[in-house]
Amino acid sequence: RRCTDIICCVIFIVVILGYIALGVVAWVHGDPRKVIYPTDSYGQFCGQRDTPNENRTILFYFNILKCASPVVLINLQCPTTQLCVSKCPDRFATYSDVQASYRYRPDQWNYFKQFCKPGFNNPRKSVAQVLRDEDCPSMIVPSRPFLKRCFPDFSTKNGVLTVANQTTFKDGRGKTRNVTDLREAANGINIVLDARSVGMKIFEDYAISWYWILIGLFIAMLLSLLFLVLLRFTAGVLFWIFIFGVIGIIGYGIWHCYWEYDHLKGIPGSDLTVYDIGFQTDFKVYLQLRQTWLAFMIILCGVEVVIILMLIFLRNRIRIAIALLEEGSRAIGYIMSTLFYPIVTFLLIAICISYWAVTAVFLATSGEPMYKIMANQTLCKYANLTCDPETFNTTNVTKLCPGAQCTFAFYGGESLYHKYIFIFQLANAFVFLWLVNFAIALGQCTLAGAFASYYWAYRKPADIPLWPLFSSFGRAIRYHTGSLAFGALIIAIVQLIRIVLEYLDHKLKGTQNSFTRFLLGCLKCCFWLLEKFLKFVNRNAYIMIAIYGKNFCTSAKEAFYLLMRNVVRVAVLDKVTDFLLFLGKILVAGGVGVLAFFFFTQRIPVFAQEVPVLNYYWVPLLTIIIGSYLVAHGFFSVYAMCVDTLFLCFCEDLERNDGSTAKPYFMSASLHRILGKKKLSSKKA
């Protein structure tokens, strides 16, 4: 063997070093506090320790009517003065009313001034001047904190939008306004607040049931290992058990849905539709509707019919795939360490995700506080220009634009680094995709090399090299880093293009140009198909690299032509095998899910006292089901790679050898009887 795709290997190493340098620079300039703490109009963090705002943890907006929606308040800068306060207002009040009564009601002024600029304590100042200089808000409304920001305390009463049970309020400028003026903001806020309430309950459920979730995932791991061990001896019987087990689980689901549907008959309110009750944060409400269980039953019946029809028409091909899996089970039986290699891939991807996320946060918060002139007069020529708060009062801007202020706008900068932060974010995302795909490619090539060493051993297991998995991993790193990086680079480029297309599609959703939407839809579909095709080609190219040690392009070409010459076998064996392995994952996830369902609904008497009290029992249930599927996927992916490698080796074996003494077959006798046409010559002992 020799090193392949050296140029790409060098570029890959240089990019990694540059990626590390980018992370260091972002670490130096970034400040995650900008994400954790809201920032007032003076660029100071709310709630930060050892600062004047230490006990002022909430951001208050002088005139929230100037903010179009919660999205503006959270992501962009609202064009009004913002202060850090210790608590949100709990009453209606206007500055003009408080000023008029401060002499005989000083308590009202003492309460109101905490929402004025720090140090302002001059209730004698005229209302016009106060509002011009924005020393105090013109009004305050009952609010509650959300994302450390004060939002009006919206509620509905008999279908009418209210704030503190009132439908109107004074705006402090001589007008009485209706609460519906805030409807656009209210709709978005109420949805987000409901979602936050659900999120808090879900977090509580995780905090209570996390150890039971880990137990469920551990059971899923044991079941996956047990099934893989049994596959070595009884692949055919076990997979038929898989198939009928899935059919049985779905059948139980159909029966349970019918039982719930019939049980709710005659109960008041059960005949309502989902449309009638609308969106509810308590999802148990939907389970009290007959329509919900009828929909579940129809869906499960459809899935059951599809599976049964597929089994009827593919029964002969399934038997062929099972025989190939038996050969794969023997290979894994000799190289058991391959079952645990997905843990290595998982750790590598976890490192990539963590580094990308940290770098992205530090890049996003690496700007310096930027201040802009905010003027009440729309014709002020200095409005929105950058300013310096320390020297602003010495300029003539305040004379030309009375009431103009130099307030914090956003984080940014004028340096070369700050100008290219967006480019750095794109580079961060691109290198992240490249590294993740490289980790996947390394795993595929390593497993392929180990299983290829099994197939090409003339006498099994005597000729299988010692520590085949570690040897394959060493070869992939030492000789083929460049080839693996080349293949990963191609996938990363396509994935980045898909991300850009998704971003453009999101931005253009509101447009009425149907041709643009159609074009974007076509491009998204084409690049999705291209990514799937390239992943298929790359997977088989890595197998050929592991076998012959050639460069990426040569291996991809040879693998593609080899598969095209055996396209029927590819369609029959590869996809049917994937289907059977998918059924295995469903059975593991479904079995553990049914067990978890009986546990969390207290239907197992032995553990009834151990069940934690939850807001939503489906939170740990869904987590266990999804986690069990992912655990099973990790173990079964080794089998999928094994079958793909053995199949490619088999096709190569048929083309290179003829079964004669000079060119004997390397495949096992059972595999040759299933897939080959020529007689297998006797092998030497």
TrEMBL record:
Which superkingdom does the taxonomy of this entry point to?
Eukaryota
A GO cellular component annotated for this chain's UniProt record is: plasma membrane
Q: Which UniProt keywords apply?
A: Antiport, Cell membrane, Glycoprotein, Membrane, Transmembrane, Transmembrane helix, Transport
Catalytic activity line of the entry: choline(out) + n H(+)(in) = choline(in) + n H(+)(out)
Membrane-spanning intervals of the chain: 7-28, 210-230, 237-255, 293-314, 339-364, 431-458, 479-501, 513-530, 579-601, 613-641
Q: What is its main location?
A: membrane
Membrane protein topology class: Multi-pass membrane protein
Under Gene Ontology molecular function, one entry of this record is:
antiporter activity
| Annotated InterPro entries | Choline_transptr-like
Does this entry carry the keyword Transport? yes
Instruction: Give compartment(s).
Output: Cell membrane
Report the function annotation for this chain: Choline transporter.
Q: Which family does it belong to?
A: Belongs to the CTL (choline transporter-like) family.
**This protein's name:** Choline transporter-like protein
State the gene name recorded for this protein.
Answer: Slc44a5
